[in-house]
Amino acid sequence: MSPSSEQLDRSLRDALSAQLSGGPVTLVFEHFAETDAPLGRRMSEARAYAESHHARGVFWIEAQPDGDWLLYLTEPDGERTLVRRVEVEANGTDAAVEAVAVITRQSAEALLGAGGIGMRATSERVPASSAMQPAPTHEPGAKATSPPAARGHLMFRGLSFSAAYAGDLPASAIGWDSGLSVSVAYHVAPGLYGAAGYTFFRDSQLEASSIVLGITRNPIYVEGGYSFGHGPVVPSVGGRVIVELLGRHAVSTSGSFSGTPDSTRASVFLSPRARIDCAISPGLAVYGSVGADFGLNRFSFVSRANGMDRMLLEPNTVRPAVELGLSFWP
Fold it and tell me: Which one, 140, 176, 279, 325, has least CB within 10 Å?
């Protein structure tokens, strides 16, 4: 649309998302490379968008000198382009936006075999305005959403892989611990998701008088939750069950102490999490997550001298946890 208007762009996205929500379609927004290309080039570029997104059809809007809009539909394998005039009355942009959304929904349903398309055929001889910009693209297979110019909320469905910085406070004697978290997740409609992951932590050394212990951590988790919203920024809430294998190795001892065989204990944590994902490009998003891990079983590593136990390491029952990383949506 020309002149460019962020408000109009948002209105079109919201209206189209509302009309197409709940149906077997996905809504993708693109922009033509040139603002003054002839209709024939528009049709070719629209077909290229359809092929790249595996779409059934590409819709775009052209503003006319008289103020009305032309809504075009191009099919990837079709030899014709369909067009529908949308009247824009004075101060009637909202009504025109709603009309575009309704016509698009009806035409999308027809593309999926639900009826005839209520648009007439046109050809390259129809004059094209130089004021075309957004072209929404539709492809089957998911609910409609309102993404950004990249892929927006389309990304937040299906399979994803994540890599992130992870930090928590496992014990006072260790302090804040940092590692690399990797995970795989699957999002299903209407927003449910499941995930599983592992965090790599470097071994820590715990020094006490006459004793040096090596501490290893191997946390594995499964997570389930719900994602909210249909925009480029999507918040989520969920919960994890973490099983962490905490091992200790006597690196060195002196004096009256002697090392005992290596020991590994399993800790179980329940961890509520809040997360937010922000799309930054097609197939790529940045996310942050915060939460707290609540331990279900307590134990500690001790040294024994003269029949008395001295605490060396006691894992925290409640520990704060954060993640900050990237998610990839193939």
Answer: 176
Residue 47 in tokens = 């077909």
d(CA 214, CA 174): 11
Alpha-carbon distance of 279 to 152, in angstroms, equals 6
The candidate with the shortest Cα–Cα distance to 32, out of 2, 11, 66, 77, is 2
Single-letter amino acid, residue 160:
S
- Mapping DSSP onto H, E and C, the string for 1-54 reads CCCCCHHHHHHHHHHHHHHHCCCCEEEEEEECCCCCCCHHHHHHHHHHHHHHHC
Looking up tokens 């001295």 gives: 310
Distance, in Å, from the CA atom of 253 to the CA atom of 207, rounded to the nearest integer, reads 10
To the question of pTM greater than 0.70 for the whole model, the response is no
| Pairing, β 81-86 against β 69-74 | antiparallel
Task: State the number of CA atoms in the 13 A half-sphere of 274 facing the CB.
Answer: 4
Cα dihedral 248/253/255/258 (nearest 10) = 60
| SS3 category, 151 | coil
Residue extents of the structural domains in the chain: 6-146, 156-328
How many whole angstroms separate alpha carbon 199 and alpha carbon 237?
20
Mean pLDDT by 10 residues, the chain (330 residues): 69 87 80 77 83 85 79 78 85 84 86 63 42 34 34 61 95 90 87 94 80 87 87 88 88 69 88 93 88 90 72 85 92
**Distance from C-alpha of 16 to C-alpha of 103, rounded to nearest angstrom:** 10
